[in-house]
Amino acid sequence: MVQSAVQSLKSALEGLLGLALPAGIVVGALLLALLLVGLLDRARLGAGLGWAASHLAGLGRWALAALALGAGLLALDVTRRAVDVRLGTQHNARYANAADPDGGQTVQSAPRVSLLGATTFTRSLSLPPEVFARINVQGGLEPLLPYFGSPDSAGIRDFRENFVRRGNTLVYTREVTLQTEQPVNVDTTAITTDLKFVDPAGGRGSYYNAVFNADYTFTNPLTAAATLRFDFPLPVGSGTLSNFRLTVDGRAFRAGDLTNGSRWEGEVAAGKTVKVNVTYRNQGARSWSYALGGRREAVGAFDLSVNADRPAKFGRYTLFPTSQTRGVLGGQQTLKWQLQDVITAQDVQVIFTGGNLRETLGKVGHAAPVAVGLAAVLVLAWAATRRLRLPPLTLAAALIGLSLGLVLGGVLTAYLPALLAESLGAVAGVVLGTLALGRAFALPLTLAGVVPLAFLSGGNAGLLLTLLAALTLVLLLRPRLGQGGGRFRRAAS
After folding, report:
1. Regarding the domain delimited by 106-113+186-351, which CATH topology (the fold level of the hierarchy) does it fall under?
2. Dihedral, CA of residue 335, residue 341, residue 343 and residue 345, to nearest 10
3. What is the CATH number assigned to the segment(s) 115-182?
4. Membrane-spanning regions, if any (predicted)?
5. What is the pLDDT of residues 87-114, one digit of tens each?
6. Pick from 184, 185, 192, 181: nearest CA to 108
């Protein structure tokens, strides 16, 4: 990050040097204008120069305050660029010094239930007598079998072929028994998914730890015992699954061949209902989806609950939750989909927009210079409305201290979670500014220092900034609220 900061500082200084020529032209034009004024009115020029000489020290101190403000803005811009370069390099690096999230956009598909049966197909082929005579000359019938080919082995439970002599005619017979699958609707579905988000240190991408727990029931629709199959597809984009368990009627089954997901097959009595529980843990990022099916599926009773501690949005043209329970300004929320006797081909897709840490830190970096400039304005307004003494050099020290604190917040994102790092930086900046100006200016410095933190609230930055602006306006317009209230009470008495 130090190398990135040096490169950013070099680019910024080159940009400032690029402004030297236009600034020199402007200064030369001003000096030429003053020379012309002096030639036309020497007395007024002399009076102006005398006033400037008497106030030169004060103007120089305020110029130092402006220079401190510019230096703070430059340092914050360099820090923002360095943080962005570090995150970009880290994202595209081939190797890493910390574990990456094991999983991405997780998609869990609904299970499939099938009623297994068998159907036998028989075909016969009669050969002419001359062919039969030729076979007899050669001896044996087996050499003919390869010429009839063999059926595809997929779904075949039994395969038989034979030659039968009927007089002078030779008859070839083939019997193929195929396994058939008849779809069976799932009676009830009850799913609970808990998503706990993690912001790892070092600015790595946010991810969630998921706990999936589902209960399914289905019934043998026949009046006789039959073989039913339950296929549970493994989630896509889930990375490594842990604690995976498939339990059927209270009996746990170990995972075998998982090419097509986890499968259970067994004999079910007529009209009996089978209860299946599936649970696992995994990591994911950015979104979580539940695909009900690629075709229209009849859903008897569907109950899905998603518990997440991040604000969520929903994919367009997907099933919208039937109820939502949210905390104040985000926090823990519960999303529910409760459907009854519904035929739908739509899916459930929950998207978490706060997962792009690079974009979030970019917003914080752009807001930090604004916060320092706002601090300068608020401190000046605070001193004017409360008639407080404000030395320019002290103001310069306070602005440098606040800028250093916000720079520290950007540097700490390489070692701590973003919210903690930026919060520590803001606190350090406000403390340094308060030490320079005194406790009387702690409130305006705090109001300005927390501005970048609003962009870490997960989509509530606009509301928080509006409330902060309203509070600032009230504090500036009513500097002596308590004294004014006391005068009003005395007048009323």
Report:
1. Immunoglobulin-like (2.60.40)
2. 20
3. 3.30.1070
4. 12-39, 59-76, 364-383, 395-416, 423-442, 454-477
5. 877 777 676 666 667 778 999 999 989 8
6. 192
